[in-house]
Amino acid sequence: MGESFDLDYSLGELLGRGQFGAVYQCVSVSTGQDFAVKIIDKFSGCFDRRLVYSEIKFTLLAAFENPRSVQIHQVYEDITAVYLILDLCPGPDLFDRIVGHGPFFESEAAALITELVESIAECHRRGIAHRDIKPENILFGSNGRLLLADFGCAAVFEKGARTLKGKVGTPAYAAPEVLAGQNYDEKVDVWSAGVVLYLMLGWTLPFNGESVEEIVAAVKKGDPVCFPKEFFPWISREAEDLIEQMLARDPAVRLSAEQVLITHSSIRSPRISVADSIPQK
Q1: Torsions phi, psi of 168, nearest 5?
Q2: What average pLDDT score do residues 59-78 get?
Q3: In sequence order, what are the residues at sequence separation of 6 or more whose Cβ sits closer than 8 angstroms to the Cβ of residue 252?
Q4: Which domain-ending residue is among 35, 67, 86?
Q5: For the chain, what is the domain count?
Q6: 132 tagged catalytic
Q7: How far is CA 60 from the centre of its chain?
Q8: Is position 38 annotated in a ligand binding site?
Q9: Which residues are noted in the entry as ATP-binding (predicted)?
Q10: pLDDT digit string (tens) for 212-239?
Q11: Three-state DSSP class for 94?
Q12: Are residues 63 and 187 in the same domain?
């Protein structure tokens, strides 16, 4: 860990604020290079040293020689906070892109979901389950490359075994086995990516509600995913098939990240659907 963030970096504008701290732009005093710094306040009431060090560990493990994961460059700590020096992702995250864009064309969504699943697959090859895949944790680097961020809920898993446990992540994107309190495997990340794909194409969630409790109940209820015409007037059968297999309620049937990439060639060479001739909303 570094000794003094203030000596090495100049703090810039606020980029975002979360439950455990805030993210700012910062500039290296020695090189002039721009970075982001996540400042985790030790006096916020939510500070847990074990969780902070777990996030650092899993971010480093996921990011090593992996171009699709946000990199930690340095870590500082003083009596008030922990400072994580991260890649600067200047553009809006995927959530803000969805809000500002409206429903994506299938070709656009296919390109983004391919990058996301490639990032997830690389984590899984390293035995890491992210467990909080959602648009707010999907960032974009200065070159436009999709980067997976925020490994605060990540965990190591044993391949081929449902050894993970704990209700973590964000309910709207969490797999039913997570919300039910069951043991589960890394395919919970594929479920979450399927929800992201559904949201990009339809501008709505597959299992929705007016409150967190209603969303949890809808996910756990067991109804098959559907594609209402008011939200999906132009969706192709290929896209429906892919989402249905990513949102399979039985983890044994649900696709793995590798299967999404290998089996479904349509996600690599996206089909240009009728939707691509319709003006964006």
Answers
A1: -125, 170
A2: 93
A3: none
A4: 86
A5: 2
A6: yes
A7: 16
A8: yes
A9: 38
A10: 999 999 999 989 999 999 999 999 999 9
A11: helix
A12: no
